[in-house]
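Re: export button greyed out
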Amino acid sequence: MKILVAVKRVVDYNVKVRPKSDGTGVDIANAKMSINPFCEIAVEEAVRLKEKGVATEIVAVSMGAKQSQEQIRTAMALGADRGILVESDTELQPLTIAKCLKAIVDNEKPDLVILGKQSIDGDNNQTGQMLGALTGMGQGTFASEIEIADGKVSVIREVDGGLQTVSLSLPAIVTTDLRLNEPRYASLPNIMKAKKKPLDTTTPEELGVDASPRVQTLKVEPPAERQAGIKVADVAELVDKLKNEAKVF
Amino acid sequence: MDFTFTEDQQLFADSVKDFLQGEITAESIRASWETETGRSDELWAQITELGLPAMLVPEEFGGLGMTELDVVLMAIECGRVALHEPIVEMAMVATPLLAALAPNNEKCADLLGQIAGGEAKVAIAHTVNHVVADAHIADYLILPHADQIHLVAQADVKLEAQESVDPSRRLSTVDWTPSEATCIASGAEGVALLAATLNRGALASAAQMIGLAEAMVARSVQYSEERQQFGKPIGVNQALKHHMANCAVKTEFAKAPLYRAAYVLSMKPESADFAISHAKVVAGEAALFAAKNSIQLHGAMGYTWECDLHIWMKRSWALDKFWGHAGFHKNRTHQWLMNPNAQIGADNTFGAVAI
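Workaround output, generated via the alternate export path:
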């Protein structure tokens, strides 16, 4: 079984980002970049499936600037067998990414595609679903547990009301939620081995995808600063404020 | 000249940093103080899985074949979290000594393989230190005796625990009897290896002290942003922020001698004494300076047991004295500079190694 895993290069989750002074975007100059945490979970799940003997090959795919190779190398250090970079210096939006992935799915013919449910920079939560629509594959989003047997993948999804279990015929798409697994750390020997694993590069144009953005960001601004709290004299005053000022009752 | 670390060296350091910052917290360090050994088999298993014990083990003995320059950034990260497990000393100090002897010594070669695989731990003693760190959990001890070096099973020595100012450190004095069977080096070879071991120990301590200094400054800056007085963070006051800026400058200026020392030690170890001593002195000064000013910034509570700052501060105190105190290393620097044939000047900055 071949598994395709998507990994996105994002600002490390520990970095406190700030909007640019002109409000045109987020200032990520010199910020530490990492694999999107949900994508890391996707890689870990694929590696676990390979360790169980369910999967035979893991292909890690990333899109974006040339530096995204670092995230593919990290995925390969975690256990992916080879990598594909779709190189582009333009801002890649979910639909473009999904179309590129569709082209790679057509070429690679994986049995399972695992993606993070969303990236922590765009927070769009769209790529997996769009890829499902483009490929016609079944999709199990927000997965907290997956099991593969008899040509099907059983996915336990984290939904608002609790947990929902769906069964999908392979090939299928799974997007990972936070509790699916706890990713391992890349070991030094595996980081060294990853350097020798093959990494192919292509472009959206070569894949026949128009990469021009369809959504324009008009303004980015920080959240409003939290106001200082006040002390109330008694419960009656608290209830009064909640009712008349906060209007929560 | 390119003075930057390679992409791989940065990647290794980032990987180790991610692991350490994810697993080692002030709470976990405090928890280790309550255990009998002060060490965790579970954490050691993770460290082994990452490949850290194998860093300086040559590839032919099952290791990763790295150099001091490759691992110095990782040692800084170990200092940053005040790591209590003995990986830095074992990987950076003990294994290179065994690696030097392994080609002609089967016992050392076997032990290197076990270390790389996480099956054995080694503690190392030196005449410059009065005690041995982590001998209580070691399978073997490397012990000096005059111009000889002995490899002794821990079961064959008697350990007496010694208290450290740093509760994370577990120290011992060793009562043992040298024998021909345990001797692995002697004469000129033994002397040379002991000298190289001193340099590696000092480099390992210096690197950790840089990490400790940066961690203390980071904690203090964070505290000064959170602690409010008269309606504003205390960090806005020049009386505090200038102290932190001075600490950051001192630490930054100590990094170049540290990196130079790691470079010379990995490329031309026979010329490394001066560079190593320089690095140890300035790293110690940076760490002690950061400790002192961080306490001042925290106010009286900075010195209390409840405030985590003392974990980093006491480690700085301990490492500043270990593998040669500041006076020892200043003397070595003095002797080097006063040598009639001293290799000083721009041509010798990196130990006359072409880069």
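Chain B is about 55% helix and 10% strand. The button fix ships in the next patch.
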